[in-house]
Amino acid sequence: MFKFNFKKAKTFLFALPLTIVFLSQTAFAANYTVTSGDTLNKIAGAFNTTANAIMQDNSLKGETIYPGQVLYVPGSTYTVKSGDSLYLIAKSFGISLNSLRSANHKWDNTIYAGEKLAIPAVSKSDTASQSNGVISYTANDLDLLARLITAEAQGQPYNAQVAVGAVVVNRTKDSRFPKTISGVIYEVDNGYYQFTPVQNGWINKPATADAKQAAYDALHGVDPTHGAVYYFDDSTTNKWLWSKPIATRIGNMVYTY
Q1: Thinking of the domain 139-256, which architecture would CATH place it in?
Q2: I need a labelling partner for 76 at 20 to 30 A (CA). Which of 92, 122, 206, 238 fits?
């Protein structure tokens, strides 16, 4: 659910130990340290490769991996400098913010000078924007938006799910907010998360089929809210949220300007 500045985020993640290693004269990779819950397919998705390629590059005889194991993966390593942000780093390497977060298990915005980050190899989904949407977006953007919709509106009417996506799209077109899907969803304003699923980790859960379709519809101009930039559950007692002009109500959700 959209979260105004109520609780200060306290989640801090630590960087994975990553260094550049050479697999051949023409290809290079980063060291990725396996964490609990990882699978080869999950790691492959984060680094735009395949499980079979990782198995071959690391001389693995099977798909079994364990926490703490170090794997070679396609990409490079970047050392954070003063003034850097995850958004600027992702932009400079031509990858999506979500790709950078996934490759480093970094779902907050806390980085520090000297920290080393894995930079995934650029994929077609990172470089190919969809031109037939109301805003430019990538496959990663579509997936991220669908995961937000799943976390926020699963079980709500379909139009309520589309409306959540529309709020994010509307924000990208509003000068008060970031200009990209990932920028809006991961925005931290004065130390406060704008969307609860980013803070509690629900943003990382797989999207439902309905949410994927709802995200697609929102990205292609379907907006049941007619321009809303906020939403919340109607059980909230926050007076600031209720003071906003109401655009519409769908299911248990309220959408405001």
Answers
A1: Orthogonal Bundle (1.10)
A2: 206
8-state DSSP, 116? E
- Residue that is written with structure tokens 């590059």 in the block: 57
Domain(s) of CATH 3.10.350.10: residues in the chain: 20-124
Name the DSSP class of 207. P
pTM: 0.54
Distance CA 11, CA 199 (A): 8
Tokens of 256: 């405001």
> What is the rounded distance in angstroms from the CA atom of residue 236 to the CA atom of residue 183?
25
Q: Which fold has domain 20-124?
A: Membrane-bound Lytic Murein Transglycosylase D; Chain A (3.10.350)
Residues of the chain with CATH 1.10.10.2520: 139-256
204-253 pLDDT per residue, tens: 999 998 999 899 899 989 999 999 999 999 999 999 999 999 999 999 99
Q: Which amino acid is at 122?
A: V
Q: What are the tens digits of pLDDT across the range 33-72?
A: 899 889 998 898 888 888 898 999 899 999 999 999 999 8
Please write the tens of the pLDDT for every residue from 166-194.
Answer: 999 999 999 999 999 999 999 998 888 99
